Amino acid sequence: MAERTAEIKRKTKETDITLSLSLDGSGQFDVSTGIGMLDHMIEQLAKHGRFDLRLKATGDIDRDTHHLAEDVGIVLGQAFDKALGQRRGITRFGDAIVPLDETLALVALDLSGRPHADVALEFDRDLIGELPTENLWHLLESFAKEARLTLHVRLLSGSNDHHRAEAVFKALARALRAAVSLDPAAAGDVPSTKDVL
User: Fold this and answer.
1) Residue 128 domain boundaries
2) Is position 75 within any domain?
3) How much is the pTM?
4) Edge-to-edge, what's the strand order for the sheet holding 150-157?
5) At 106, which CATH number?
6) Which of 6, 77, 188, 189 is the most buried (most CB within 10 A)?
7) Which tens digits make up the pLDDT trace of 44-85?
8) CA dihedral of residues 175, 57, 10, 46 (deg, nearest 10)
9) Which ranges constitute the DSSP H helices of 27-124?
């Protein structure tokens, strides 16, 4: 089996990002964005999805964290898309319901090749640490678009904003792990009647 890995570099006037990803890792990560809560969310994705991920990102966060969060979503999505290649032999669909204390999050996704994000997140605070909560939604939308996947996110319960965000990223990690997993019965086929994803 070919290695399912990707290295992506994106440099704009606003951000400079380097990311490497292995879909078949053990959850090792080294994440540095300059935004503690953003680091924490990406670390959850790597650890609970068992993806090996290195991410170094800098940007104009003295203005706003928007550009950096968006571009991290873009680069992360591009890395998943590249590492999946033709998407042969994958399970394709994944879902997870993840509790975190009082919070319950649901994520369902399809590595369909058709980008769509239906993300229903509600927060009480505008900021978690130094990260505006609206940027979490935007990061997830950017990720789904660039990874060419259909993503549905629902918060089923919860009152603590940190728990809400963390449960969503843990659920995303578990759903992605299921979807990218190789199906032994698929024998390398593309899981679609179209024979292409």
Assistant:
1) 5-186
2) yes
3) 0.97
4) 93-100, 103-110, 150-157, 116-120
5) 3.30.230.40
6) 77
7) 999 999 999 999 999 999 999 999 999 999 999 999 999 999
8) -20
9) 36-49, 66-84
